[in-house]
Amino acid sequence: MSKSRARSQEAKDKQIKRIIYEARDLFFDAGTSGFSMRALAKRLDMSQSNLYNYYSNKRQLWYEIMTHDFSELENKIQEIVMYHEGNFLALLVKLAEFYFNFAESNYRRYKLMFVLPPPPVDSQDAEEEKFEPQSILMLLNLLETAITQGLIKNIDAKKMSLYLWSVIHGTVLITNTIVFDPKSEISTFGSKEEFRTFVIEQLKDQLSQAFSE
To answer: Do 89 and 189 sit in the same domain of this protein?
Structure first.
């Protein structure tokens, strides 16, 4: 590849990263329904026709962002599992704490991934049809492996994985409401950290009953 062609590709990659960065922020600010390619082009100080050379619609941009963000989340989960030393209950606690920290580090990003509906679409392309976030399935696989190895007993892995995720996800949502806003007059439930610790302790008590002696 010639130097000029390499520089051209490097410039294109840099522009794509910039588009994705600004698109994510616009999704944060406007939601999926209020997002428009015109507004994004204005943020980028570029023409709409030029923007369409990179992405044809907001659904394609949303899919690109979701693919990147879920891949990052799932890779970190895999790292935690791979390098964990200790029992299975400690691993579940570590994953719950990581999930809380992931959500807290950028709650707007978390909302885009798990709360906001995707932009409407007339028809999905082949790649988008195959896209499925794997985080809940990763938890299910962990539980099924633990059952196979005799580490836990007397549980339905599918129901338990969905239960655990719903508790953690629900905790993330409730701790980002006015109920836990220290400036709110109705905030009487302590800090986010205290409640999250309480939730984890409750889950540990419940899960310990399913562990084999």
So the answer is: yes
pLDDT of residue 176: 86
Total domains, the chain? 2
Residue 61 lies in a domain: no
pTM of the model: 0.83
Residue 213 located in a structural domain: no
Mean pLDDT of 178-189: 67
**Domain span at residue 35?**
1-56
Instruction: With cut-offs at 50, 70 and 90, classify the pLDDT of residue 6.
Output: low
b (16+ CB within 10 A) / e for 46-60: beeeebeebbeebbb
CB 119 within 8 Å of CB 30 = no
Residue 62 in any domain: the answer is no
172 vs 72: CA distance, rounded Å: 19
Query: Are the CB atoms for 168 and 139 separated by under 8 Å?
Result: no
Mean pLDDT of the chain: 87
Distance CA 78, CA 91 (A): 12
